[in-house]
């Protein structure tokens, strides 16, 4: 067998070994899936992942490319990222692990702490915690934000609470002598 074919067969076996568990379960915890800062030569066992900081991606189909560090999820994509309080749905999502970004496309809806954004393509820059949304042709991006109303809290702070019982500070008449 030629060395090039043997190398390709080895890479194919490695990709199948990586993708088979996700194909069966349909779930990949994508955060740190491809961490470029971790050397392949390290022999220490990987640290246990805290479920609260993991990003969970569910979809009909998922592919991972070890050469590029890109994870692609297609079909009914659902993302849950509890550490940032983000939930998202889309037709497709691509996680670019080396660049620290996620690109969602196809009827994207993202919910974060009550605020939401809807568009055709939304890019999430993980390090910056920033969303960049683009609309479908001839449409607009829609966002709904929960904005705290500082002016109402200062108005309410000056108002004393309602007390149905009268509060007499000084008696109206002198107490009877005994």
Determine the fraction of residues in helical runs and give it as a percent range: 10-25%
Described by strand count, sense and barrel closure, the largest sheet is: 9 strands, antiparallel
Low-confidence regions = 17-44
CATH class of the domain at 52-144: Mainly Beta
CATH 4th-level superfamily of the domain at 52-144: Lipopolysaccharide (LPS) transport protein A like domain
Structure summary, number of beta strands: 9
Query: Alpha-carbon distance between the termini?
Result: 119 Å
Helix and strand element order: HEEEEEEEEEH
Compute the average pLDDT. Answer: 75
Give the helix/strand class.
alpha+beta
CATH architectural type of the domain at 52-144: Sandwich
Topology:
Layout: H1 3-25, E1 27-29, E2 56-58, E3 61-65, E4 70-81, E5 86-96, E6 101-112, E7 115-125, E8 130-134, E9 142-144, H2 150-158
Antiparallel strand pairs: 1-2, 2-4, 3-4, 4-5, 5-6, 6-7, 7-8, 7-9
Structure description:
The chain is built from two helices and nine strands. The protein is an alpha+beta fold. Strands 1, 2, 3, 4, 5, 6, 7, 8 and 9 form a nine-stranded antiparallel β-sheet that branches. It is elongated, with a radius of gyration of 28 Å. It has a domain at 52-144: lipopolysaccharide transport protein A fold (Sandwich).
